[in-house]
Inverse folding.
């Protein structure tokens, strides 16, 4: 027995070193429709998983025909943005033509393009950012009405509409807001972060900004485990990615580290609001401007060089 102890110890150490993280969730009919729709899209994109806020992109970021077609579908789901899909198609065709360039025999070497991009990386199609279009697409797949979760090209625009409805009609609103520190999110909730250089400290500070530009990002909450919130988002490192965020002992998502987008809002389906909470929300209605400020037009950009790290 004594002679076997080193072998047993080595086996235990090997097992500890090779332990794998919990398996990603599979689509579950018991999940809310929005969470189930996000999971199905994540499956289609290859089930990429990231822990927290890594700098590295997933190993597989190929712009496969299937992924590219899904990206086009996200933009077609946003009313008035089919032109974005057409521009992406033109960009892909242009990249493919450069990649196929072959100098004519005897032609000067300088005639060849200095940079020959490849259509193989999905990062070339990450502009305009498509994370909000992803949310609109999965909302329609989940059967959520456009008026309840509008498909928009930016997160701030649909957040503004959902917040306004929540404070003007708490009982009739489809979604209710809460601060991330107030309660744990649930599967099917939207977990939203402020990506700006000067993030708001609380979601109520967004109310008087209605319509103004503010870069934000929302993920669909999929599962809660001890110490972890799992959520799926689009255009995360140019992909559809399931991320695992740390949570406290009660299941509330912990704040992002400095320099990362700060969590400021959880939008949860309205399953019934108490009179006290309805009164609290209604008291915020005067903060919402009567007229929505116009968000500046998005600049059209052309992908150049290598895909940028997001």
């Amino acid at each position: 027995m004594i002679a076997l102890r080193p072998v047993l110890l080595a086996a235990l150490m090997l097992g500890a070193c090779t332990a794998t993280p919990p398996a990603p969730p599979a689509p579950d009919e018991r999940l809310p429709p929005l969470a189930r729709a996000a999971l199905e899209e994540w499956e289609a994109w290859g089930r990429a998983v990231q822990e927290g806020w890594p700098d590295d992109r997933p190993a597989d970021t190929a712009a496969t025909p299937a992924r590219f077609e899904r990206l086009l579908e996200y933009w077609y789901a946003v009313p008035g943005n089919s032109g974005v899909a057409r521009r992406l198609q033109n960009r892909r065709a242009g990249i493919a033509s450069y990649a196929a360039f072959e100098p004519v025999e005897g032609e000067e070497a300088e005639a060849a393009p200095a940079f020959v991009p490849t259509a193989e990386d999905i990062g070339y199609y990450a502009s305009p950012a498509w994370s909000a279009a992803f949310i609109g697409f999965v909302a329609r797949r989940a059967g959520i009405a456009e008026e309840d979760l509008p498909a928009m090209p930016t997160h701030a625009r649909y957040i503004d509409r959902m917040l306004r409805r929540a404070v003007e009609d708490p009982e009739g609103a489809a979604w209710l807001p809460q601060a991330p520190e107030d309660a744990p999110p649930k599967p099917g909730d939207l977990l939203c972060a402020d990506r700006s250089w000067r993030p708001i400290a609380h979601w109520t500070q967004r109310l008087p900004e209605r319509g103004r530009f503010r870069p934000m990002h929302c993920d669909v909450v999929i599962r809660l485990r001890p110490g972890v919130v799992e959520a799926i988002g689009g255009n995360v490192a140019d992909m559809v990615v399931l991320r695992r965020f740390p949570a406290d002992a009660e299941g509330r998502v912990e704040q992002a580290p400095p320099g990362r987008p700060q969590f400021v809002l959880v939008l949860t389906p309205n399953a019934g609001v108490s009179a006290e909470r309805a009164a609290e929300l209604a008291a915020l209605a005067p903060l919402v401007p009567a007229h929505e400020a116009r968000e500046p037009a998005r600049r059209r950009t052309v992908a150049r060089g290598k895909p940028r790290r997001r």
